[in-house]
Amino acid sequence: MQRYLIKFAYSGIRFRGLQKQPGEIFNEEFPCRASIQTIFEKALLRLRQYEKASEANIQFSSRTDRGVHSFCNVAHFDLTLQKDGSALSPHRLMKILNTYCEKSDISLSVSNVEAVPSTFHSRYSSFYRHYLYRIAVTDKDVKAYPIVEWKKCYFIPKPFCLDKAVKACQLFEGTKDFASFCHHFKQQPSGYPTIRTLDHFYIKPGRPLFDPVYDPLYSNIEFYDFHVKARSFMYKQVRRMVSVVLALAQGRMDLDQVRQLFEQPGEWNPRAITAPPYGLYLLNVDYKIPQDEQPQRPVENQGKEFAPSDN
To answer: Residue 209 in contact with residue 152, Cβ under 8 Å?
Structure first.
């Protein structure tokens, strides 16, 4: 057997999400309405190594919801060796997967394939995940948005205070109990781990997807990007975090109410409405060795700050 790592990107607008859904029925005429897992399973069936699609046992690094986009998600699966005892080349496998996606006319593309050791796991071997959430602030009377931004950005009306948003983001960084930001937390089994460490959570000015010169609907729209990095996240955690920051920036919550969500784990403030999935993008999944497991820095570099890699 040979294990393969694949990196892939997709627009989540029409897919049913990343993982196969219970009772999901694949329709060859409308493949974009299937889950991404189902698409890959159908593509791998062409290798004639499995009797049924589920035998592919694809494991994903990040299980994004329906509507969420990705520039670099990661998965792994195993393939048996060929008749001559050799493994299928990564280049050939990548071509097979992309050919199937192209012929199916779907917004899914494999950017890289690598042969990896059998001990590699796309989910549990990862060091951190980097998400982006895009918002656009508009005047209250705006009734139409640039078509290129459709379900690629979360549009919100003014007022919006960037300074308040920046201060709110700072409350999330570090190791904390994020139970309040786990969707359906009270339905989770006893002992469900809600203590998580956020390496970074910040907001900065963003940009449109298309040059505003060609579309007058971009007038008076301010774009902002939330960036968040951590090793793992709970269900809808990032979207609920963004919703709380927006509630503060728009005057529906104050800093004390944000703090209460950490002081009273599991409680939620209804003034914060969970941000929709289509503003969320998985930017990267990193498998680098954690800093405390890397060789010690040279003497001349010790004590200096090093920015984490976005690659």
So the answer is: yes
